[in-house]
Amino acid sequence: MRSLRALLLTTLLIASVAMGHAAADPPAVPAPPALPDLSGLPAVPHVSGSLLPGVQEWIDRVIPPPPIVSTPRQDGAVLETAGVSPTLAALHEASLPAGVGDPIFDHWPPGLADYAPGEIIEVRDVTATAGLLVLVPFRQALLMKYRTTDAHGRPSFATATLVVPAGAWAGPGDRPVVVNNLPIDALGRDCTPGYSFANGWTDNTSVTDFIPPTTQLAVLRGYAVLIPDHEGPWMAYAEPYVAGHAVLDGIRAVRDLLPEEFGASAFGMFGYSGGAIATHGAVKLIEDYAPELSEVVVGAALGGVPADYEILARSMNGNLASAVFMAAVFAIGRERPEILARMNNLAKWIATSPVKDLCGSGFGAIGVLMLPIDIAANYPDPLRSEVAAEIYRVTRMENMPSAVPLYIYNGDQEFWIPAEGARNLYREQCELGVSAVYRGVLGEHLIGAVTGYPEAMLWLDERLRGVPAVSEC
């Protein structure tokens, strides 16, 4: 079985490299901000007498590193950061998603630090193309590009699409807004809902953009819908700080763009699976990052919650979910390159190949190999390392209270994203004094998405109609 996996993995690598030669060069993209200080990175442990360390050593002896050359930034400056070797900086740059040929998604605006978080950079009317995807009547769809903040507090940008219903709002106050945090779960910039709204249906458009039909149901209810591309320009899938900032700054952008229509609106969030990562990050960041939104966001419903990556390291590694897990680890490494520093040569080839632009639907073929993440590391037992422990701690966002009431649900029979993480989150938030509800629902990840959805949406609808949340803590 290991020989078969090795053969298939080698075939995948060769195919990836071949794809890279066949693909056209992506358009030039301005360089991102500098990397964080990695001078305190723990030393690589040495372990012998185990099969996997032997395989890891064999991989680096047989497979040379990919030919990555450090390139100057578009503004002419060389990327130099204390604690980051030129080799790691070049690997990081090469691992970032390729441009898609559209400046609204690709271009890093000059003077980004001069913009306030949530300040609008560009707006594009995408009503014509979005109409073929939303399918229910609406007045307008606007793609917004706005300033946000990355995982390390540096200026970045994000995009989000605002869908406004056709009819006048007949309820009290201003029209409410549902923030639909979709499970983007992807590595490439053309995998986002914003890209689909701007360009129409493509091979990379995800069915989870429409099922469950949160956007459609909300529009029919008379609510506007905000759909953030919450992975940011680096497509940092599963990084909760990036996602949380992008969501909160998207709300700021809506209020800034259309203050007469949405300046006093109530906003409610929904997210499942990868969308729950964004929702989890956003509600915990309101208090410190966007305190003015604590009275604006009236509640958040989140299900299938990947709240603890240490749990997922046990449940998703070395099985059919392993490709999704490895994609998330790699994508977090785009924001936290200490992860990239721990990749072996095979992983570096793959991370700099067209695999780096895969959408979620492309992970299935790789998942069939059921490879453990150890096969991509340059040291033994990476999921129990100091680097992993720090990533678990940071992404868990421990002891950070939500600023808004929560409705949390998870499938009781869930095996890839066990209910343990969602239950722990519920207990934590109750202990921190947050109004919260937890529901264990029938099913694993897919069935649970269906069985838990109706009550979650009813709960969120009540919050948007001004009904106070009742805590079950």
From TrEMBL:
Write the protein's name.
Secretory lipase
Q: Does the keyword Signal apply?
A: yes
Q: Which UniProt keywords apply?
A: Signal
The UniProt transmembrane annotation reads none
Which stretch is the leader sequence?
Answer: 1-22
For this entry, list what GO says about its biological process. lipid catabolic process
Parts forming coiled coils: none
Mind telling me which Pfam families this protein's record contains? LIP (PF03583)
Q: What is the lineage of its organism?
A: Bacteria, Bacillati, Actinomycetota, Actinomycetes, Mycobacteriales
Q: Which organism is it from?
A: Nocardia bhagyanarayanae
Q: Which terms in the Gene Ontology molecular function aspect does this entry carry?
A: triacylglycerol lipase activity
Show the InterPro entries listed in the entry.
Answer: AB_hydrolase_fold, Lipase_secreted
> Which SUPFAM superfamilies did the record assign?
alpha/beta-Hydrolases (SSF53474)
